[in-house]
Amino acid sequence: MKIKSKNLHPVLSALVFFSFLITSGMTAKAENEKFAEVDGVEYVTGYLARLLINENPFPGERGYKSMDDSKIGMVQILWVVHCRIKHIPPGYRQEHVANVKSEDIIDIITAQGQCDGFSRNEAGKAVVAPRVEERLQYLIKLANKGSKPGKFAELLNYAQGLAVAYVEGGIKQADRFAGLEIIKKIAVTGRAYSWMTDKDYYRPGGDFVTIPDSLNGSIGGNRYYTLRKKVNSK
């Protein structure tokens, strides 16, 4: 005697099918969910975010210490480019500090010889070196792996958030170098106006003064520099 298979009740069948649709939709959503995104290079927010990301180490990279260290580094990079626009010390001209005269932050970033990998092409468009974009896309790929956001997503989103906040209104985080007055008996202007990879053989020269470890001048694998105070400035 054969046992006939029983058909599901129409209502139960509909519920099973509906449950399948919901589960499939949730799975597709999870697979397509992005934990981190960065605006396009053609946007000010995207270009600025690329600078903050490029100049600070991520987990596993040389110079990486901690999430907080890299985040502070992003903030201080932002302060440097901002100070080159809004806080030129007495006795200095913007061209002396930023190698350009402009109120446009993209001009500050792309000024000749200032931010390696960031420039304008022959058409005047702000561009980044291929290595900068390749690293960014690799970091974004890592950030969007797995079932939940991790350190890579957190750092990318932090950089993008800083860039958006700056364009929309400024920097809410404090400039940790704003109050500097004396470094090794040298009167300084306060604030940082340059940064370089933290190696002894990298120095900006001129009137730039190294901010030492005792004043937390090394952040995110970079060494920061303030300016010598001009004798006649108050």
Rg for CA atoms: 25 Å
Main sheet record: 4 strands, antiparallel
Could you give the distance between the termini? Answer: 106 Å
The helix content is 40-55%
Write structural notes for this entry:
With about 230 residues, the chain is α+β, with helices and mostly antiparallel strands. The protein has a domain of about 130 residues. Helix content is about 40%, strand content about 10%. It is built from 7 helices and 8 strands. Strands 5, 6, 7 and 8 form a 4-stranded antiparallel beta sheet that branches. Strand 7 and strand 8 form a beta hairpin. The longest helix is centred in the first third of the chain and has 23 residues. The protein starts with 9 loop residues before the first helix and ends in a 7-residue tail after the last strand. The N terminus is likely disordered.
